[in-house]
Amino acid sequence: MSLKRRGLTIHAAAVLAALLLAAAAFAGTLEDKVNEFELDNGMKFLVVERHEAPVAFMAIVFNVGSANEWPNVTGISHLLEHMMFKGTEMMGTSDYKKEIPYIEKTDELGEKTIDLRKAIDEWRFVKFEEFRKEVLATFTDGENEEVGTDKYFQNRLVVEKIRAMESFPGDLESQKYLIAEGERDYLALYLEYLETWGEIVRLVDEQRSKYVVNNELWETYMNNGSRMLNAGTSNDFTVYFVYLPSNRIELWMTMESDRMDTPVFREFWIERDVVMEERRLSDNDPDDVLDEAFNSVAFTASPYKWPVLGWMSDVRTIDRRELVEYHTKFYAPNNATACIVGDVDVEQVRKMAKKYFGKIKAQEPPNALETREPEQRGERRVVVEHDANPALKIGWHKPVYPDPDAVVFDVITSVLSGGRTTRLYKSIYEEQQLTARPPAAYTGPGDRYDNLMIVSAQPRHPHTLEEVEQAIYVEIEKLKTEPVDKRELQRIKNQIDADQVRQLGSNLGIAFTVLMGEIYMGDYRAMFRYIDMIKEVTAEDVMRVSEKSFTARNRTVGWRIQVEEEKEEGEEEKSEEEEMEQYKEVLMQYIQSLPQDEQMQIFQKFQTLRSEQEQMEFAKELIQRAKDTGFIKEEKTEGE
After folding, report:
1. How far apart are CA 15 and CA 10, in angstroms?
2. Annotated domain spans of the chain
3. Residue 532 confidence (pLDDT)
4. Could you say which architecture CATH assigns to the domain 380-562+577-595?
5. Can you give the pLDDT at residue 638?
6. N or C: which end of the chain has fewer CB within 10 A?
């Protein structure tokens, strides 16, 4: 699990979602405290006055996530989130007008790289990239020292070396139609591609040195007392949020209206490479590999079948023009909801909102997503291979609000997991000791459209995936045949009531409860009705919904099987980060099991950590805490 200071990573976004879902319960009186108003351009504001401390939590949610994307542009919502920190016409620059020629020229060159890569064809491009790496490996110490971090010079030197070669390696020469076909020289096109990319880097470096004021938006917020400044992209929405002293609300209005209205996607082609690297890291993350394979099989029509990061083949062909059009379409005021909770005056907020956001033009509303997942007509299974420990996911299709059965699944997930008294914890993890950590039951991958109830688990050596899967089915079958004990059901409802009380002290909890009601249900008031509906769920409802939904016909199963990968000579063992990766899911479960005030403290602590090493050390501290309390049981080695 990791947190970035520029936008939530996908894993940190999952942690935040867990915290927010656990916090989604409040006393009915809060509904009366929400002040709602809408500007002439359609932008909605939800304001809750809380004068306990001179601070305010401020967030803007845009009604767009990966589910609003389409083939060829998957991943663009996440890419746009990155680019929204690159500044505006007035922020992040010393002279925007003088930047325009650089932006136009890099766009021209960037489009050229896309066209060249398509002309080369991907199978050739991969071969040529391997060749380039071989050439890089021949650089002398002096050449490497001279190149340093200069990508322009590095590419130029690689091209010179290749062009000077009298012959090429045998695997290149022997591959039919690789280097050339007829009069078309594909290797020459590839070298042109490298030169073009080098020129993009050179121009961006020059633009940065002359005109870009690096991190101005970030530094301005930090210098004005901000906390929790971040953003996140999910399947269903994109959110930007910050805690500020309440006397800085006009600063927030100024900056956020500015980047909604006149963002400048400077350094686009370089930042797109950063996002592509994030995509590459996800390709090597064992949990992401399983999740993506699982979702792509579980869904056949729903856009939940592709990941928030998008597919690599799509991300690398997105250009700045597409990003500008996507921003105009989805980041319009009539597609946004702002929420401010804290020491503010609603009338003052209304006046400033009109002044700063009211001038932004509304856009034609985006088309509603009409594609729905059809009924599943038979079990689906997918197996992925990885050198990580085995793992499994089982998912059953389910409805979402306003279907009244949606709330029953919230009760079912609470019956199955989330604490030491829950069924999967007691039976599979504690008594049978089949898993390395407590199995988790949850819903996903999004919550706006019909989704899945998922159970995930990792076998504890020497137990197998099949053993764990069958043990999970035993517990699932009990839901159909054995009524949930009244005491067990009451415990869940008592927990909801306890959450209500705790959340009255959290600006963040209030804000996201209200915002999620608006995003997922179309009206923040529906969230309060939803919570009341959960309290009305009966044992008979649990049995009825379980009998209807938990069938093999409606089930998708994903296995990650462990395979030993041969290490090349000199290859190092797993890094500390890779070792820590195995605890990501159980750490999220542990955080969710804590009282809400502790969850919030943990989240806020992560926000204050400035380096990846500090974040790693804090994660290790949390893991050790989970081990000390017995939430994580360490496996014994043979002979112990």
Report:
1. 9
2. 99-210, 380-562+577-595
3. 85
4. 2-Layer Sandwich (3.30)
5. 44
6. C
